[in-house]
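Quick one: sequence plus zinc ion SMILES, need structure tokens.
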Amino acid sequence: MKTHTFTYVACTCGHRGAIVQTYDPTPPAGWYHAWLRDLSSGGGYEGIDELFAETKPSCPECGRSLTPQDVVGRSELNEDALLKLARR
Ligand SMILES: [Zn+2]
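Reply:
Sure thing.
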């Protein structure tokens, strides 16, 4: 079953977005993808946080580079939960 992990970030200008990680453990190889929602790529983060190092998020409003210090929350949803949300 696919799992989606949302890492919410808030810029100092007030803009909010999320880094979404989709993970599908279906054998043999499994599948993983990280993408940005309401955020731009091209940030300048260079540090030990793999998620930020990989996606290099930046704020689409003010261009600020986002870092793990801007994380405001995290949630995890599996496919079932997403389908339930879509049916509402
Ligand atoms: Zn901003």
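The two ends are 21 Å apart (CA to CA). The chain has one domain: 3-87.
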